[in-house]
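Two quick folds needed for the group meeting slides. Do the first one here.
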Amino acid sequence: MEDPAAPGAGNPPANGYGNGNSNDGGKGKPAAPKGRETFRSQRRESEGSVDCPTLEFEYGDTDGHAAESSELYSYTENPEFTTNRRCFEEDFKTQVQGKEWLELEEDAQKTYVMGLLDRLEVVSRERRLKVARAVLYLAQGTFGECDSEVDVLHWSRYNCFLLYQMGTFSAFLELLHMEIDNSQACSSALRKPAISIADSTELRVLLSVMYLMVENIRLERETDSYGWRRARETFRTELSFSMHNEEPFALLLFSMVTKFCSGLAPHFPIKKVLLLLWKVVMFTLGGFEQLQALKVQKREELGLPPLAEDSIQVVKSMRAASPPSYTLDLGESQLAPPPSKLRGRRGSRRQLLTKQDSLDIYNERDLFKTEEPATEEEEESAGEGERTLDGELDLLEQDPLVPPPPSQAPLSAERVAFPKGLPWTPKVRQKDIEHFLEMSRNKFIGFTLEQDTDTLVGLPRPIHESVKTLKQVTRVGSQSSGIGSHQGILAKEHKYISIADVQIKNEEELEKCPMSLGEEVVAETPCEILYQGMLCSLPQYMIALLKILLAAAPTSKAKTDSINILADVLPEEMPITVLQSMKLGIDVNRHKEIIVKSISALLLLLLKHFKLNHIYQFEYVSQHLVFANCIPLILKFFNQNILSYITAKNSSIYNSQDMEAT
């Protein structure tokens, strides 16, 4: 069993960035500017302060098995676990005498499941709900007969594979269609002034069984038998493609989301719908690991060089909830004394950290003007400025960030260093070099040379160095101790050709020669089928998801016009004690957090897969997200104490006494 990754706050190790304390020797040197102290305090807070600790997190597409299963339920649903168990035991005793479920042989278990499915096909709504609850108890792992959480998760997975092999998912899919089209339940919910968890009982039971089946079958383990592996692939195919002239299952869930947001079905348990939709998309299209494998495979098919790194692994190594330290160093250098007062030998090095236009160094500098000798006060200011650099000056002496004046020899390719802290390999497209040269030629020459990245006549030296950096060749390998001897040198350019560039070029060629090239052959992949099904109603889908995300966003303003996303968490009877109110408040916050997690993960997964499938699909989805004000909505989440929001403990422990009190 995988342990859920619970975010926790730990004390980070002490870093080697000091404050530059210097011994003034009682000479009465001028104090450092106040702005510089501000940046130092910000750097201390971001790197080692107790107020802003380093988060222990794991970047991935899902949490652990136990955490993902528990997030399906709310604390308000706790009494229903007992109801599910009672329904199962009552039905099981009428069919099997003197034995428990775990004591039965596999054939006897299959026979009992077939009987349950037969009893689902009854007219009585109450009897059908009792049988569905018995199936849900099996999918939950028959916890009444288990001794530990590990046993519950094991038997939940075993029972879900057994239920799928007996055709349970198809039977529950038909029942889900019936509940979606149930106009009586919709009209009853519309007439009520306040919708509670009792209005969505049947839907919650059906969606819970389907979610547990998808989540348990989706997980791959090394100990899985051949039958389970084959059942997983069959299940993935059924969910990905249209079976029996029906739309893919994900489109049905998308239609439930739009129907809920339109106000036609306010009783839908939207959290369970979103969780199931997210897991279905992940199961059919693939998670981060499958996405990376598809990217590598597609680059091989297009004849592109392999990727230098895995972007997901790079993100996993990045720090959380705090900016990189080099951005604060850059801001500190901007508040340094002006370069004109640092003319001494040591002050010239201080200029390297000052943010300025490199064109001013080489073009606006008066070469015929004689510099005045520096005064004693200026020398002291230069010495004070250098002391604030601490140990960073030694790095500048080794790897300068700005090219030297024209009088010196140009830097070699090995000497050009990129800013410390970039976690990924630099990538430069041919289009980026052409765009940079076009702007530079327009500024300094007045005309451009299209598709020419070699002619640099008339451009100043900094432009030459910039183009050289963009075209730089990095050497990866081992160098022996002998002079001039290299072993294992591998040349690799920064110039990067993406899959999107190839797709755009192919589209341009098809547009120029539609008759000669003919119609493009599009592979019927699960991603392509999903996009084709979503295309007609794609704007409505994106708007509906963002509406729900807005309703779950943390804000101090009352949202009277927003949709009600708490229909599947509010109990029939509102709390009357302080303890009940506190538990309900925790449940509501947890409910909103899970909704935010499912929508953000779903959107991220769709964007990644659509971008890999075709860049224009990604742009179309992104365009509608921008039209629906997705960017301001995301900024609303970051416009707060993000560390407190992430580390909020929206969980509670219900014991038997608390449940009896409620």
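Then this one, please, same format:
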Amino acid sequence: LGGWRISGKWTSLNFNRTLRLLMSQYGHFPFFRAYLGPHPASPHTPVIQIDQPEFDVPLKQDQEQKIYAQIFREYLTYLNQLGTLLGGDPSKVQEHSSLSISITSRLFQFLRPLEQRRAQGKLFQMVTIDQLKEMAPAIDWLSCLQATFTPMSLSPSQSLVVHDVEYLKNMSQLVEEMLLKQRDFLQSHMILGLVVTLSPALDSQFQEARRKLSQKLRELTEQPPMPARPRWMKCVEETGTFFEPTLAALFVREAFGPSTRSAAMKLFTAIRDALITRLRNLPWMNEETQNMAQDKVAQLQVEMGASEWALKPELARQEYNDIQLGSSFLQSVLSCVRSLRARIVQSFLQPHPQHRWKVSPWDVNAYYSVSDHVVVFPAGLLQPPFFHPGYPRAVNFGAAGSIMAHELLHIFYQLLLPGGCLACDNHALQEAHLCLKRHYAAFPLPSRTSFNDSLTFLENAADVGGLAIALQAYSKRLLRHHGKTVLPSLDLSPQQIFFRSYAQVMCRKPSPQDSHDTHSPPHLRVHGPLSSTPAFARYFRCARGALLNPSSRCQLW
């Protein structure tokens, strides 16, 4: 990469050569992101996407100037530590780190919020590599993208999806300025960013510096402190990421056998039937919309466990000849990163008529794909404590069942958006909207916890509706199947077990991604739906007017 002036060893190399190496060999994208994603007009056709960069600092467009400055001060301290750990002269480290912060700040100011781009109808733009070269000439787009997405064969006429053209134009101008006047500082900025990206694979001094920065930034942004993650957890996650083709088949064979799959499908069928029944009785839907909604549910595809593609025998036997594991942990990680990128590109180039899963089989995150009209429940979700064929039905319906219902309601998100259902009773729908927002706003928030009710509204509606649908399905099952449905060690009725099971899987500690989460904080995901369900207050004998037994409730679903 040519080194850097901080350590006194620096060879002024071609800027685009360095950028090309950072992107293709290290997976580091200092000025923009480039990745493969579905074509906007054809979801099963892959296309290279050029997007805004992901900044390492938690900046927001509407941040107070004082907080903004404090965040940058902490980040400057962190960069100084990195430069010193790498043997740099302290005075030079301070100067180059400050310039790196300045570059980051200017790039951040070029960003346009998603809401602004959506309002202007400019979420993305189809351009060729040649056209992008004219718009942002500082970057040798063809050579950088060709190196990153080998073995794809790219040409100047290759179409790309660009998410923010104006950002790229401004970014290009900044790079050209730096190349004319401060080329060595631009090099330092790229190298510092690379070290930040690689810090999890470096020694404990780098990891400790990173941990302290994260702690300070969470304090400044008034987020609760994060508990330390044990090292084994990161090792398991990275092994799963790098060797998923082999591990997927092994995991599913071990954890999601035919009996588990059959029991999970029965649960899903009961939840789906309860949703269809509920759709027939929604006061804000007319008969035509109800019929349309029922048809959408009937046509829905469901995939459980793992994708058929992931379970192909040849993938399980993959030998990973391109991965070199040696005495250097860093070099081993980099070898795995390059191998993974090559496999991702290769998989996108192969015909893939079915839905392409967005999660690993051991993940616990279910999702609904709008483009393929398919709902996905990975095998990791259909494990304890969410689900087990031998659990009492109350446990399975309360945990996995409510999650299944939540995902099914994603089918109808469009109806809840302004103007999304012209044939609906929009007055009743708007009243239900406002009611639910007021309901969630009434809950006290723990210290250092915040949420945006406009951002979380759709997920809140799905949480409340999902619990109600799962309870309806479970109540119907109780009428048809009698027998032992309680847990011997707990003095709880079947219905109480149902609600306890729901609360147990929703209640958790906050995660680092919570600031970008469209879900409410964990305690609201428990209290909001439970307090919206009259049966909960009845079975737990909550006093009228108590937090979980309000005097009035809302119903969207």
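Slide caption for protein two: The longest strand covers residues 42-51.
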